[in-house]
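pasting input
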Amino acid sequence: MSSMRQGRPAGRTQDRQPGEQRGEAAVDLAIFAWEWTRVVAGTSWVTEDRTVVADRLTRLTSALADALTAEPFAPEVGIEVGEALVRIGYAAPDALARTVTLLQQRLRADLGLPAAVDDRLAQLVGAVCLGFTRALRSRTLDEQESIRVSAVRAWQRAETALREQAMRNPLTGLPNRSGFAHDLGQLAAQVSQGAIDGTVTACLLAITDLPSVDHDAGRDVGDAVLRVLADRLRTRFTGPTEFVAHLGRDEFIVAAVDQPDAGDATGPRLASAQELITAPVTVDGRRYAVSVATGLVARPAQRTDAVQLLRDADRAASWARSQGRDSIAIFDRDREARERCERELAADLPDAIEQGRLTAHYQPIVVPDTRDVAALEVLARWPHPRHGTVPPAQIVRLAEHGGLTRVLGRSMLRRACEQARAWLSDLGSPPLVSVNMFPAQLTDPHTPGTVTEVLEQTGLPPSSLQLEISERTVLSDRRVLRTMADLAALGVLVVVDDFGTGQANVAQLAELPDHGVHGIKLPKDFLARVGPDGTACHATTPGRAVQVLASTIDLAHQLALRVTVEGVETERHHQLIQSLGADLAQGWFYGHPAASDVTSQHLR
Amino acid sequence: MGVVPEWVPDTVDLSKPSAARMYDYYLGGAHNFAVDRALASKVLEVFPDGQLIAQANRAFLHRAVRFMLDQGVRQFLDIGSGIPTVGNVHEIAQQAEPTARVLYVDHDPVAVAHSELLLADNPSAAVVQADLRRPAEILEARELHELLDLSEPVGVLMIAVLHFVGHEDRPEVLIDRLRDMLVPGSFLAISHGTGEGRAAAASELKEIYRSTATPVTYRTRAQVRDLFDGWDVVEPGVVWVPQWRPDWPDEVGEDPASTVVAAAVGRKP
């Protein structure tokens, strides 16, 4: 209101009505102002008490009254009145409408002014409308702006909260995997700016027996245990370059940057995290203790990729887990390389088998006396584009791990039969092909059908095929015995491989012929114990190894089983097994496994 | 509060109407969006005197705060404070007593952000985002314990908010726990839509609010009285909102019941 007074034109006081009329006019002003107060009440929400409002409206009335008669005429007073109305809080359109009506209907009459002021009144009313709408517009825009700014702020805050929550483990509030990667990424940025140098050491703590806590005491208790462990880690590792994160439900990671001049205490310090995890936790009066497998990784801070670091720490923890309770393993790049090779091979093997990228090699099985090649054992080789040639034993291990033995066995059988059929055409009477059968093939009732199908499709007579069944197969399994008998019934030869190394006992040996078995193969272990020059390797057991070999051959012969001795590497071996009456022999002395083209030339 | 956020962050969906912004519209403010105005207009079709009811509610807030100030209360907890327009609690309180402290609580993130803008330079007033359906969010709020001195009486204001809290959310739990936490001489003011006497309009209004984040639950005057269990309800008891200690006799109007809003203030003995 004071600004309105200051806004009055100078010399105004002299232009006023004569003083004797002032008291009467003041009463009239008050009457009008009270009426004004009454008509606008309820149109808008105002903070002020009614008496305060009436007082303000009285002053506004006074300003308008002055303007109606003052010289020179200053219609802008109306603008100020309109603005003031909004400022008091009477900002509703209704308030303006009622004000305008009241001014036009009563102001002049209430103040006892002549009709001559009507023109001025009209201009003043127009100015009031102008002031009111201008102020209201300005207020509205301000309020719209402030609510929009608030909405944007609220929205941004919600987004940030969502983002932050996405980087936190909801149970413990620690950073999760992406939070850890984010923190480490920020560290890497500092490193690249030269602010930090040194080594990042990370210690992954994989709790190994949380499921048993969950199972025995309930998941709530498991959660409570994890919260305690998280708090322990959080309060221990508080340094500016130390990180704690909660990766999976039962995995924590602690990482720290070791400054070059800070000594090398980081490793032991981080490893102490293990004790924080294994120290008992009390929940609801009960003590729980968990064990942990700890994987340690260290690398230069400048070359730290969080994803790689996590993967390597994970790997080390998995090694620790296989080492037993509360073990620590340090990440070893060579070991990881070997294991990665193995994993890659395992991943590639199915396609390699499917697409026929495995090759068959053939090792001769000879008649010792004549050295004629009686059979050729088929062995798989895998020329891998990155890892070189994968040997048969590794292929078998990979196939067994990957559950691929049936597919591999069938593929090698087909390959061998096709080759044998080709040799049959080329040579007239080629050696047998001898194909290894896997345990999974022998428990599969479809195997005899598959063999029949392959023989029919390749046109190979059953008598040209020998199947080697490892004694590591459970020979007492009814399904295996049935398959062996069915295979023998097809007319193929069935021999038991790896004799004496597996499940069979000597008593079972007697039953083998009943199941169609035609012969046995004695693995190289027998000759290895004899030694390269034909004498026993162990001085304390001279001749015993030879005796075992001789007796086994005799026993087999008495049961009418043909004996193949493997591992013949020297002339002495050859002479020994010849003298012991071995029917067939196999080993480097007679020939290494060779590819089909080399073998073909050799057979001609 | 621990460092662990157990809440899911509120999303801010500006395509949904907000009760706080609709209330601002009833009071003639422009702190609202088209979606709020659209729904508020529907409400005003059902309750043509809706703006007057909102004003009456607002006037009750003022009278209640001034009453509490007269009783020596110097700190206030305004739960469901909404969009802080002119004449909010801290303005009334700090005008009378410049050191008076006020904590605003609302669950509407936009209302909270707006309060923050308004209170940025006011060290004696703060806002916290919390949902009264989860009492711990309020009772354990850091701001509550930092700004307010709980060894002194506190004036709790729950103006036109509890009718947005369903029976199943048990607002009495928060009220009881507040009563237990606060010292004797503390006050509680409630105004609450009852739906009594204008059943058809009230049920239409309920239907309109059903689609919002804050559906309406009416409580009768008797049920409002029950919310004051353990508090001494001061004169004139649970009455229609214009009847509560009016400044001017004619403020009450000819038909105070038409506001359908009940109001009362209680004192912790």
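fyi The interface with chain A takes residues 2-6, 8-12, 14, 21, 27-33, 52, 54-55, 58, 62, 83, 85-87, 91-92, 109-114, 116-117, 247-248 of chain B (CB under 8 Å).
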